[in-house]
Design brief:
The protein is α+β, with helices and mostly antiparallel strands and 618 residues long. Helices cover 28% and strands 18% of the residues.
């Protein structure tokens, strides 16, 4: 991006106040010393276990070989190892305490009640890309629930799939405690009750669900009415939101684990019904899961339709915080896939490796979140916020900084294919004229609005951010200075920034990452949500959230258009100053098969797809 450097130089020529934290922002630690610098094989194809746990678990079965060296590359093969990168170590393994979406090893070792239907993705009828969190009923299917029923306006009944067993790893005491027994409705009911701290046998006041679900969205009663039936009652008007959470955001656990060990924060207490078994955890280094030989699911689509899953012997996450080190690991074959690759890096990878497979993906935009709740701040004034929108030249940023590989409007709903198909994404040129005008650079009108709001000479706003965000934030600094607005950047160490952001303890503004992520969750708008970085508490949006909750995951045709219809109103309020959203790339080596850049099969279910892929080992 040769023009990027022109932008950055210009941003520091202006009168810019850059306030550093008391300690300089520390750069991310590099783990490149652990990686080979010579070209390695792109994937480890041996299925020989390397740890005692792997030996014990794999000894319970003989891995079927579905291909010989003469087999066609297009045919499924059992065995092999699949390796991905994580930017940070997993700090907890109890998804009742922490977010289901944030703890990826459990997406391999556990199942939810419902989830994305692989047959609806690129390897099936291609209804959905599964390139982001996609919790839509139309592309979901039963996982641990073989069926479900909504009774009246306040009751959900799940029928639990029969013949599903917890994975058995003979080298794990916790797994031996459960002993591979069959899943029952009691397990499901217990897990749900613990999720909301209504399980009478245990106390969990710090349950994660309590931070995300408002009181009307939470279950009232959860009862196993027989061995394979769970009945849940909730509040009328919020049953759709409850159904989504119970179906897609709860990995089912065994009660005896909690009863003996207290929780699952220790990774060795990780016991679920998923396609893989927890195998190893090396802090700040790696997480490993191995094949569950007794997994219930079969491949629903493609050339492997009907095959027993999973194909892989092992899935490993390498913990590599530094993006450049991730790139080095991918280039040398330590990783099989790499996500969110920037355009510059993508060009180099493709130029040097013409056989690489890739997929272009839209990201969620970064931008400025402003406190709108404090009337003493200029940003509480609508005219001021709209002036900031008019003072941002998104077209030039998209063209010069992102080399044309960016979308001007990617908020509150991103322009993904499925969202467009359902009619919930609104193209900029289809919006009302006054909304379109907000996204056209007009510094003259911006100054007029500032003067009308009582700020003819502009104002100063302090913005908290971390070092990796300085480049993009400097674009805002440069352009808003032209309308008299000075952004004072307060650069914090990553951990400090995360604490400030999650606690919303900044006083004026914060540079935000991934605005509009998972639009169905309304993270950027719920009054008490940590993602509501502008402190919004708006009656119209609150009513939208309530209306959406009534239909969500019950009737797609009624739920999702509510967000699309509200888009003009949300954009007029200018609560966030979003930059253009760049495209990034997912790249993978050609021996990874039955894969098309999938990321999440359902809401929060990131990296659960490895059960469907295989490695060509010829």
């Amino acid at each position: 991006m040769k023009n990027k450097y022109i932008w950055l130089v210009g941003s520091f020529v202006i009168a810019l106040s850059l306030v550093l934290a008391s300690c300089s922002a520390a750069s991310n630690s590099s783990t490149s010393s652990t990686l080979s610098t010579s070209q390695a094989a792109a994937v480890t194809t041996t299925s020989t276990p390397k740890t005692a746990i792997e030996v014990a678990a794999l000894a319970t079965t003989t891995t079927t070989t579905a291909a010989t060296t003469a087999a066609s590359e297009s045919q499924p093969q059992y065995g092999g190892e699949y390796t991905l990168a994580l930017a940070a170590q997993q700090t907890s393994f109890d998804t009742d305490i922490t977010s289901w979406g944030g703890y990826l090893i459990e997406h391999l070792t556990h199942n939810t009640l419902i989830g994305g239907d692989w047959a609806k993705g690129p390897e099936g009828d291609n209804t959905a890309d599964f390139d982001t969190s996609t919790p839509m009923l139309s592309v979901n299917i039963g996982n641990l629930a073989s069926s479900w029923q909504l009774v009246g306006n306040n009751t959900i009944v799940f029928t639990i799939r029969q013949g599903v067993h917890f994975g058995l790893n003979q080298a794990s005491p916790a797994s031996q405690l459960v002993n591979g027994r069959e899943l029952t409705a009691d397990d499901v009911a217990f897990t749900i009750r613990r999720q909301f701290n209504i399980e009478p046998t245990v106390s969990l006041p710090n349950a994660y669900a309590l931070t995300r679900m408002t009181p009307p969205e939470r279950p009232i009663t959860v009862v196993a009415t027989d061995k394979h039936t769970v009945t849940i009652t909730g509040t009328p008007g919020y049953i759709g939101s409850l159904f989504y959470w119970l179906g897609e955001m709860v990995g089912i656990n065994a009660p005896e684990i909690v009863q003996k060990y207290g929780d699952m924060t220790n990774p060795w207490n990780d016991v679920g019904t998923g396609p893989f078994l927890f195998s190893d955890y090396v802090q700040n280094s790696s997480l490993t899961a191995i094949r569950n030989p007794n997994y219930y699911e079969k491949n629903p689509a493609g050339v492997g339709k009907g095959d027993q899953l999973p194909y892989l012997d092992k899935v490993k996450f390498l913990i590599i915080p530094d993006p450049s080190t991730q790139l080095a690991a991918f280039r040398t074959g330590k990783l099989d896939v790499l996500t969110t690759v920037a355009l510059d890096d993508y060009k180099v990878l493709i130029r040097n490796n013409s056989s690489l497979q890739s997929k272009k993906l839209i990201t969620n935009p970064d931008g400025l979140a402003m406190r709108v709740d404090n009337t003493a701040l200029p940003t509480s004034n609508l005219q001021v916020r709209q002036a900031l929108q008019l003072g941002l030249d998104r077209q030039t940023i998209a063209k010069d900084y992102f080399e044309g590989q960016a979308e001007i409007l990617d908020f509150p709903v991103p322009p993904r294919r499925l969202y467009k198909t359902l009619g919930i994404y609104r193209d900029l040129n289809t919006l009302p004229a006054d909304v379109q005008a907000l996204f056209q650079y007009n510094p003259t009108q911006a100054k007029q609005l500032l003067a009308q709001a009582g700020y003819p000479n502009g104002f100063t706003l302090q913005v908290v951010l971390k070092q990796s965000q300085v480049d993009e934030a400097s674009l805002l600094v440069n352009q808003l200075a032209a309308i008299g607005v000075t952004l004072t950047l307060s650069v914090q160490q990553d951990a400090v920034y995360t604490s400030i952001s999650s606690g919303r303890t900044y006083t004026q503004g914060i540079f935000a990452t991934g605005l509009g992520n998972t639009p169905q969750a309304f993270h950027n708008f719920r009054p008490t949500d940590s993602g509501n970085l502008s402190y919004i508490n708006d009656d119209t949006v609150n009513q939208l959230i309530a209306n959406f909750a009534n239909y969500f995951m019950i009737d797609d045709s009624k739920a999702w258009p509510l967000i699309g219809d509200a888009t003009p109103y949300i954009l007029r309020q200018s609560w966030y100053l979003a930059l253009p959203a760049p495209y990034t790339f997912t790249v993978w080596w050609p021996q990874v098969k039955n894969f098309d850049g999938e990321l999440a099969l359902s809401g929060g279910d990131f990296y659960s797809y490895p059960r469907y892929i295989w490695i060509n080992q010829n």
